Amino acid sequence: MKSVNGERMDGHKIYSLHEPDVLCISKGKDHKKYEFGHKVSLVRLWNGLIVGALSFRNEYDGHTIDKAMEQVGRVYGRKIKRLARDRGYRGQEMCGEMNIMIPGVPKASYSPHTKKKKQRFFRKRAGIEPVIGHCKADHRLGRNFYKGLLGDAINVMLAAAAFNFKRAMRLLLCLIRTMIK
User: Fold this and answer.
1) Within a domain: residue 5?
2) Measured distance between the N- and C-terminal CA atoms of the chain, rounded to whole angstroms
3) What Cα–Cα distance (Å) separates residue 23 from each residue in 35, 36, 55, 85, 149?
4) Does some domain include residue 91?
5) Tens of pLDDT along 32-90?
6) How many CA atoms lie within 13 A of 59 on its CB side?
7) CA 80 and chain centroid, separation
8) pLDDT in tens, 128-176
9) Which domain holds residue 153?
10) Is residue 6 part of a domain?
11) C-alpha neighbours within 13 Å on the C-beta side of residue 77
12) Hey, how many other C-beta atoms are within 10 angstroms of the C-beta on 164?
């Protein structure tokens, strides 16, 4: 009602009438400065399997690590020793016993073998970007039709489950084809 009367609005703006929990997230990119919705955290293993999928409000990326790793521990049953993150997670290098690695310029003191090893590890981290794109395009992670915060969490989990199920069906189909030949 304040905007109708011409008064200044505070930080609690409503961006959608049918979904009052929608947030404005500043991305800092030139082509798309703002996105509306919620943040999503996906954790992918080296083999491409998604073992963690959570929905967050507009939190700093570094604060989402603990909750995501707690879910990975419940789902996967093992603790992850090394974690590659993007530069949005700067500031946190350890999470419990887990080493959080962020890509950057290698130190001059590193041996060529260590540099190559880290480079390979960070290339695997870049592999999450197409997974996010496929989940958005193919598994409805890009648009949520469920209501409320619980609906956001359900949508993220269903998108990750659909991605893993499609991957498992593809592997099963390849196995059946090799058995038939």
Assistant:
1) no
2) 69
3) 8, 5, 12, 23, 11
4) yes
5) 888 888 889 999 988 889 999 999 888 877 788 888 889 988 988 888 888 888 776 67
6) 15
7) 16
8) 888 989 999 999 998 888 888 899 999 999 999 999 999 999 999 999 9
9) 11-180
10) no
11) 0
12) 16
Total domains in the chain come to: 1
Does residue 87 form part of some domain?
A: yes
Asked if 65 and 92 touch (Cβ cutoff 8 Å), the reply is yes
Backbone angles phi, psi at 50, to 5 degrees: -85, 120
Q: Return the closest-CA partner of residue 132 out of 148, 156, 101.
A: 156
Alpha helix stretches (DSSP H) within 10-87: 65-76
- Residue 36 near residue 46, CB atoms below 8 Å: no
Judge residue 13's burial from the number of C-beta atoms within 10 Å of its C-beta, 0-12 exposed, 13-18 middle, 19 or more buried.
exposed
Closest of 142, 119, 108, 137 to residue 38, by C-alpha: 142
